Every structure is written in C-alpha cells, then in structure tokens.
Amino acid sequence: MNETLTYDSDKPSGEFLTSSQAAKRLGLSMATIQKLVDNHVLQAWKTFGGHRRISLASLLNYQSAHNLLSLPPLTHDRMAKVMVVIESPELTAQMQKDMLQWQLPLQAAFQESLTEALLELLSKKHDLLVIQMSGLRKQQEKILEILQKFMSSRNTVGHTLILTPEIDLLPKAKSAAGPASIQVLNTNLSPLWLSAYLSGFTAQRRV
After folding, report:
1. Per the structure, how many domains does the chain have?
2. How is 175-207 classified by DSSP, letter by letter?
3. How confident is the model at residue 150 (pLDDT cuts 50, 70, 90)?
4. What average pLDDT score do residues 49-57 get?
5. What is the pLDDT of residues 22-51, one digit of tens each?
6. How many whole angstroms from its chain centre is CA 92?
C-alpha cells in the first residue's frame, strides 16, 4: 500500500505527528523515520503544503508490535547481535552485501536453516532473530511451535521476528512460564525493509 497523499481537508481521522515529532518520540533519526515511511512501516500523508504527517496510531503500533520499548538497552561498548535465517542463498548473499553499506552498530550472522540457527543459539546469545518463512502453512505452524518451546526453555534470544506470506499466522497463547517474545509479520524480507527495521531496532536499544 502506497503512502496516502491528501489535502488538509481530507486528512485521516485521529492524531498525527510531524516527522520530527515522530523521530523524537521513537528516539530515531529523521533519516530512519523517512525509511520507515517510504517502506510503509509507518503510515503517512501530506498536507496541501507538502508537509509530511505521520499517523500516531501507526507509530504506537510500531512501538508495540516491534516490542522495542520492553527490550533491555545495549551499552555503548556492545553491539546488537542479530541472526537472520534465509533459505535462499541468493537473497542471503545480497543481504550480506547490502548490510555492509548500512553501517549499523550490530553484528549479523546468516543461516540457511532454522536447525542451524537453533544449534548456534544453544550457546550464543542474540538480541534479535529474524526468520523468513515459506512453504505449507502446517509446516510454518510447526516451526512457530518449535520456536515458542525453544524460547520458553532458553534465554538466548531477546526477540524473534517471523516474516511470512500467511496473514493470520499467530503464536499460541503464552503460558505463565513461557514469556517468549515472538512477533509475526505478513510481509516479505527485502534489503529495504530489513534496513529500516534494524535501524529502528538498534536506535531504540542504545543508552
């Protein structure tokens, strides 16, 4: 869905913020806010005079859905550790190349299978796990169940982000003993999307 361009008299209902107000509220740079808007992560529109306005509802959804505010902050001497699971070798190679140009304060590892990722996570802690899922829905549901059990028994992943073409794929209700932090998004993994997400993720977690 493209950014909606409207006039003042046709502005969407609800509260809205300027780009600078949104940047301050999220603790992000103006450049990162621009990326989030351009990649349709934040919903925005323009006034008759051409000024961008960002939906407060979409901003609050971004904060809540990405679970950024509840994550422990990083210290200045430690970079975020991110693991990305992509089944496509071609996309993995492209992501690795692009990530070098983003110059984000993080350490990234790429795996071609969830099994390899979980084996590494048995002994190495990561702040974020990003997984691109495809295939049959029942297979994805099984993967989601495996992830919930893993995160309930291990404290080696701060947050798990699953990208899937399935619209209503959701984790099972959390138990009191299993506070797994898993988020499912109905979107495709692309360099532009990942750049915007990781920019917000790392910026929110700096102290």
Report:
1. 2
2. PTT----EEEE-S---HHHHHHHHHHHHHHTB-
3. confident
4. 80
5. 877 777 778 888 888 887 788 888 777 777
6. 17
Percentage of residues in the chain with pLDDT exceeding 90? 6
Domain range enclosing 136: 80-204
What's the pLDDT tens digit per position in 75-104? 545 688 999 999 888 888 888 888 888 888
Q: Which long-range contacts link 98-107 to residues 24+ away (Cβ below 8 Å)? A: 98/191, 98/195, 99/194, 102/195, 102/198, 102/199, 104/198, 104/199, 104/202, 105/79, 105/80, 105/202, 105/206, 106/79, 106/80, 106/81, 106/82, 106/198, 106/202, 107/79, 107/80, 107/81, 107/82
Structure tokens at 1: 């869905």
Residue 144 contacts residue 162 (beta carbons within 8 Å): yes
84 close to 95: Cβ distance less than 8 angstroms: yes
> Same structural domain for residues 61 and 94?
no
How many CB atoms neighbour CB 13 within 10 A? 7
Kindly list the strands in the beta sheet with 157-163, ordered across the sheet, starting from the edge strand earlier in the chain.
106-111, 80-85, 126-132, 157-163, 182-185
At position 182, the amino acid (one-letter code) is I
Do residues 173 and 41 touch, judged by C-beta distance below 8 A? no
179 with 130, same domain: the answer is yes
